[in-house]
């Protein structure tokens, strides 16, 4: 347990907390290839994105009720907005499954993961909450238990979930992930740079997943063919990573985007940003995550190219960009 002092925590209606007694952390993620298809059992390639992370600190509430303090919502858990129901579920499941006392806890959530941008914010906050509760009560929480509990919250957030977000927010390596299979960790180590660009438009994973499902019901042949193509690209993409062939990987990212677009989960703003990356010399570019807004990624050969591409993506409307050196990932 941590006993670090914190100061200057001042929520409107809740007395100041003197010390932190439980702490949990998690980070964001980037899906390189295979989003949406992964819901139907196709493998996906994803990597942790540690520049965006969340920390949850728990101390006893001075009153008897449990309290959430965050930039998004500051108030009692009983009055939490509906779109935080997944977090409430994770808290309840943690306390119930470990037979822990339901006494008033004060949760302080600090996150720099943009919400609703396909970066796995909801799963990351849930993972950090579960870890903080385990730390607070000093209980052993296995990765399996963690994923089981957080995924039940994710089902509320996204309805149909592959479990990829939960895994990625709690894991340190890039992985090849397939639903119900053991994930395969690997290292990227590519002489290339990845640009992540936030369109500034809230992504709508739940809606996007539901619309792909509806399209599947209406045009099964079309969607099956798209899923088969994405599966082929993901497998070739994994091969390209093993062969350190960044040109091929870039090409496959672009093909993957074409099919996501066909499935109707892109957005005109994302398409503009992605097209700007292509024109600025990216090896490939696509949307990442649930889509209908959210983020795009682009692959660049050199740091200088990456800067030019990031600039072009900003000119095309991206509100924020990050550049990752894939040699160290
Ligand atoms: O938008 P995000 O970060 O929640 O990513 C969703 C990825 C999907 O494949 C669309 C859904 C899932 O559960 O895998």
Question: What fraction of residues sit in β-strands?
Answer: 15-25%
Considering DSSP H and I runs of 4 or more, what fraction of the residues is helical? 25-40%
Strand and helix order? EEEEHEHHHEEEHHHHEEHE
Shape: globular
Radius of gyration equals 20 Å
Q: Outline the biggest β-sheet.
A: 7 strands, mixed
Average pLDDT taken over every residue: 90
Distance between the termini: 30 Å
Looking at how many chains there are and whether they match, the oligomeric state comes to single chain
Low-confidence runs (pLDDT<50, min 5 residues)?
A: 1-13
Structural class: alpha+beta
Helical element count? 9
Bound molecule types? (3R)-3-hydroxy-3-methyl-5-(phosphonooxy)pentanoic acid
DSSP strand count: 11
Could you walk me through the main structural features you see in this protein, from its secondary elements to its overall organization?
- This protein is of the alpha+beta class.
- It contains 9 helices and 11 strands.
- The protein is 40% helix and 21% strand.
- The strands form 2 sheets. Strands 1, 2, 3, 4, 5, 6 and 7 form a 7-stranded mixed beta sheet that branches.
- The chain has helices at residues 85-97, 121-137, 143-158, 164-169, 205-218, 220-242, 246-262, 268-279, 303-315; strands at residues 22-33, 44-60, 67-69, 74-76, 105-111, 175-177, 184-185, 193-198, 284-288, 295-300, 320-325.
- Strand 3 and strand 4 form a beta hairpin.
- Residues 1-13 have low confidence and may be disordered.
- Bound molecules: (3R)-3-hydroxy-3-methyl-5-(phosphonooxy)pentanoic acid.
- Residues 35-36, 38-39, 118-120, 158, 161-162, 164-165, 203, 205, 209, 289-290 line the site of (3R)-3-hydroxy-3-methyl-5-(phosphonooxy)pentanoic acid.
């Amino acid at each position: 347990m941590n006993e670090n002092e914190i100061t200057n925590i001042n929520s409107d209606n809740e007395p100041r907390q003197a010390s932190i007694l439980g702490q949990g952390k998690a980070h964001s993620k980037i899906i390189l290839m295979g989003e949406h298809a992964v819901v139907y059992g196709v493998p996906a390639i994803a990597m942790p994105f540690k520049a965006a992370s969340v920390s949850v600190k728990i101390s006893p509430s001075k009153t008897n009720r449990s309290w959430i303090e965050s930039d998004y919502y500051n108030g009692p858990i009983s009055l939490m907005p509906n779109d935080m129901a997944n977090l409430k579920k994770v808290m309840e499941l943690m306390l119930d499954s470990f037979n822990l006392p339901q006494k008033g806890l004060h949760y302080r959530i600090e996150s720099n993961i943009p919400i609703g941008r396909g970066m796995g914010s909801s799963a990351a906050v849930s993972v950090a909450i579960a870890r903080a509760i385990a730390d607070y009560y000093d209980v052993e929480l296995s990765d399996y238990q963690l994923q089981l509990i957080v995924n039940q919250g994710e089902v509320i957030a996204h309805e149909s979930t592959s479990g990829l977000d939960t895994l990625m927010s709690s894991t340190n390596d890039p992985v090849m992930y397939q639903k119900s299979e053991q994930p395969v960790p690997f290292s990227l180590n590519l002489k290339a740079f990845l640009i992540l660009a936030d369109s500034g438009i809230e992504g709508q994973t739940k809606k996007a997943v539901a619309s792909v499902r509806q399209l599947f019901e209406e045009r099964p042949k079309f969607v099956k063919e798209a899923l088969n193509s994405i599966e082929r690209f993901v497998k070739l993409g994994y091969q390209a990573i093993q062969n350190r062939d960044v040109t091929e990987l870039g090409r496959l990212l672009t093909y993957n985007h074409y099919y996501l677009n066909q499935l109707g989960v892109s957005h005109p703003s994302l398409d503009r940003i992605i097209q700007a990356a292509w024109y600025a010399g990216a090896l490939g570019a696509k949307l990442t995550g649930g889509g209908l807004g959210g983020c795009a990624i682009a692959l660049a050969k050199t740091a200088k190219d990456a800067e030019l591409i990031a600039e072009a993506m900003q000119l095309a409307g991206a509100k924020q960009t990050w550049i990752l050196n894939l040699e160290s990932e």
